[in-house]
């Protein structure tokens, strides 16, 4: 709504897409990566045939860290910065926590480097990745959050399709 009460053009288009918390609405496709406690899949959100990433965290492995993980998923859902991936939603499926996220089509910087730049990125590219990463960190710090686990080579790249 504009200040004069008029409805802003494009406001509806800018609204974040909504996702369900029903696992049956997601079809897991291939595995795209894994971390210490999670496996990440490319998946389809069936109601809109939309590609997403689903991070499946093994709750049994997390032991006492469940509160921390749920807090992280909640923070991720409140993120609003182009350089920080946000979670659309998260929910428990049997022994896993599923976090639904945008799918980063180009994968991580490490992946890109391995397949296309085996000698390593050139300096201007590294500088650009660093700058964008620092913008993301600055945003998180302004929100009162500390990342604690930055691994530059696993930064994710998105390509708008
Ligand atoms: N949204 C996404 N889109 C595409 N690929 C992703 C996405 N999220 C994660 N991945 C892939 O999955 C890998 C593992 O991601 P994850 O977030 O579990 O681990 P991490 O933070 O890199 O590792 P750890 O949890 O061990 O610190 C990433 O390195 C990346 O290759």
The count of domains is 1
Bound molecules: adenosine-5'-triphosphate
Within CATH, the superfamily carries the name Phosphorylase Kinase, domain 1
Average pLDDT, rounded to a whole number, is 82
Note the main sheet.
5 strands, antiparallel
CATH class value: Alpha Beta
Order of SSEs: HEEEHHEEHH
The stretches of 5 or more residues where confidence is low (pLDDT under 50) are: 1-13
Provide the helix percentage: 25-40%
Derived structural class: alpha+beta
What general outline do the C-alpha atoms trace?
Answer: globular
CATH domain fold name: Phosphorylase Kinase, domain 1
CATH hierarchy: architecture? 2-Layer Sandwich
Q: What does the radius of gyration come to?
A: 17 Å
In order across it, which strands form the biggest sheet?
1-2-3-5-4
Binding site for ATP: 55
Family: Belongs to the protein kinase superfamily. STE Ser/Thr protein kinase family. STE20 subfamily.
Keywords: ATP-binding, Coiled coil, Nucleotide-binding
InterPro entries: Kinase-like_dom_sf, Prot_kinase_dom, Protein_kinase_ATP_BS, STRAD_A/B-like
């Amino acid at each position: 709504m504009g200040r004069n009460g008029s409805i802003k053009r494009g406001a509806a288009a800018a609204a974040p897409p909504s996702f369900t918390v029903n696992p049956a609405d997601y079809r897991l496709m291939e595995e795209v990566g894994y971390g210490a406690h999670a496996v990440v899949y490319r998946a389809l959100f069936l109601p809109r045939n939309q590609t997403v990433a689903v991070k499946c965290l093994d709750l049994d492995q997390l032991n006492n860290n469940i509160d921390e993980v749920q807090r992280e998923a909640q923070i991720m859902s409140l993120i609003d910065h182009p350089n920080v991936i946000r979670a659309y939603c998260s929910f428990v499926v049997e022994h896993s926590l599923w976090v639904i996220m945008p799918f980063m089509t180009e994968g991580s910087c490490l992946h890109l480097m391995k397949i296309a730049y085996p000698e390593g990125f050139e300096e201007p590219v590294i500088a650009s990745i660093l700058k964008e990463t620092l913008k993301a960190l600055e945003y998180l710090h302004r929100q009162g959050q500390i990342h604690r686990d930055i691994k530059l080579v696993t930064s994710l790249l998105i390509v708008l399709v």
